[in-house]
Amino acid sequence: MAAIWSLQAQKLVFTPNWSAQAQFAGFYVALEKGFYQQAGVDVEIVHPSVSESVISRIRCQKSQASLLLLTQALELIDEGIPMVNILQTSMNNAMVIVSRKGKNPLNQKGERVGIWHAGSGQIAICMSKKEKLDYEWVHFASNVNLFVAGALDATLGMSYNEYYQLLQAGMPLTEESVYRFCNHGYNIQEDGVYMTKAYYKKHREQAKRFADATRKGWEWAAAHPDEAIDIVMKYVRENHVATNRILQELMLKEVLRLQIDRKTGKREFRLCPDMVRQASRMMYENGMLKREIKYEELIAR
Prior knowledge:
five-stranded mixed β-sheet; alpha/beta; 13 helices; 2 domains; disordered N terminus
């Protein structure tokens, strides 16, 4: 069957939401281990760049499948680009606010807080408005340099990425100075694989086979983390990403932990209706969406 599918392989360009790193290990594994080929899908992984984000590639129809935060998918639907979720790789929210000198981020009203220039901090903005924190948001591109240099009082980060960058930079972090959104009523899913609804309707079988092979890639990475990091580092080198193996090992361990559903203790790979409702309602109430978007609009049928 694998040979038959191989002869009929359909081309699919997949774009993750950032540069090469262990956050995308399951996709790299699925490609390198031949899971996509066995499923009959000819996959090319194209990372976004400073000049061409994952969102712009979707708008220009350059990528058939993309990894997006749930909040990003909601914004695209609100913009008039219907999207469907074919596989959810994140079950928990990874966002944190890290403050300086052991301060509680919620006690830093009006202070300067770093936020991604790429627009991944929608939930943080909603939270800050609800808590009346009046943060002065300062945009950064891709790392923690502004915070380490003392230009910021606090910064947003991901528990699998910037948090570990700060630890490696020697920053003193305490439980008091790290606000984890998932522990304060904002446990909203992040990474999911999306296609435009128009493309999905014409390629349902391809979408299913791509999703199944990707899930297999993540399950293999969870069972063989050392070998998965070997594969990740190949992509890191090819894409000239400034990082190190220890950081990528920590990232993979945390990403895999975030894939575990808190209620079932299993890797579910599914979008949760309650999280969609919460994200949509918060974004609508804060003027980020023109309407509340329903869970059913995102489900591949």
